[in-house]
């Protein structure tokens, strides 16, 4: 292209830009300093003047550094209401019978019907290793023909407690197992008409010499005969009905029959 053609094209360009209301500064192809200066002036100044200063401002957050409202919790840091239960730490009410209560337990070792009479049976009760610690004197809950019985009429309906002879259960008294479990309370005649649990926890046979109505029954010749020629009435230790004192007759040579032992006031 000739020099004249170049001048003509340049003139057209200037006229077109001027008529479009856009004024451009002259472009200097020999210098690229304008681009570098523009980048440094804008980006660096923006970082230092705005972003850096803004970061410094973000580290000053007094509401985050004041944690006193979150850590000052007097109600939660006081454990006394949750850990101090005086009623639960006192086991005495669960293991000690109340004032009118007495213990009633089953011996651990069985015997034939020859117990040495009721006095010999009493001695067995007091020598038993399962006798409650700290308890009083015990007597065997046995009936015989001459020295010990509960009732002379069914359930003592005629004379009440006056029918008792050297009887071991006290009138209107609550009885407990050695572990504190309540068995039940006697009537004014000193007998049980109902119990909550058995005197023992297993269905062991127990010599009683009692009928189901608390009158006297077979008793191995007054608890002096351990042969197979005589009979004695037995109950089952874990029963809660009349079988507690009279389940069936057993031969007196049966060697593993236990005894009920009642604490005396």
List keywords for this structure.
single chain; 265 residues; alpha+beta; disordered N terminus
Structural account:
By secondary structure, this protein is an alpha+beta fold. The protein has a domain at 105-263: Mannose-Binding Protein A, Chain A. Helix content is 30%, strand content 13%. The protein has nine helices and eight strands. It has helices at residues 3-19, 33-59, 62-65, 68-71, 74-77, 80-83, 92-95, 117-127, 220-223, and strands at 101-106, 138-140, 174-176, 182-185, 205-207, 231-236, 248-251, 258-263. Strands 1, 2, 3, 4, 5, 6, 7 and 8 form an eight-stranded mixed beta sheet that branches. It starts with a helix and ends with a strand. Residues 1-62 and 64-95 have low confidence and may be disordered.
In short:
This protein is of the alpha+beta class and 265 residues long. The protein has helices spanning 3-19, 33-59, 62-65, 68-71, 74-77, 80-83, 92-95, 117-127, 220-223; strands spanning 101-106, 138-140, 174-176, 182-185, 205-207, 231-236, 248-251, 258-263.
